[in-house]
Amino acid sequence: MADATTTAKERIDRALATLERKVLELKARPATAPAVGDDDLFAPRAGLAEDAARIAALEAAGRDAAGALALAAEAVRDILDRQTQDGQG
Question: Who's near 76: CB < 8 A, 6+ residues apart?
């Protein structure tokens, strides 16, 4: 189980590092710079009728991702609890 836990932690660390890098890049841009295409996934784009469906799909994906992360966090907690109990017993 330690290998799976380590792998999961490494994947989360990489994802957080990527997210932090993107946030820093966006913050470093001057206010007068042209918009970045993916800097706000939820912002409507002018003149596109499919925006409502796109935004709804993104929101649904966000809810699904949040649910999956909650389940993953619970699984990690369970593994850590079992490891702690095994070490004490």
Answer: 5, 8
**Rounded to two decimals, what is the model's pTM?**
0.44
Euclidean distance between CA atoms 72 and 52, whole angstroms: 30
Residues 39-70 pLDDT 10s? 565 566 665 666 777 777 878 888 888 888 88
DSSP codes of every residue in the chain: -HHHHHHHHHHHHHHHHHHHHHHHHHHHS-TTSPPPTTS-TTSPPTT-TTHHHHHHHHHHHHHHHHHHHHHHHHHHHHHHHHHHHHHH-
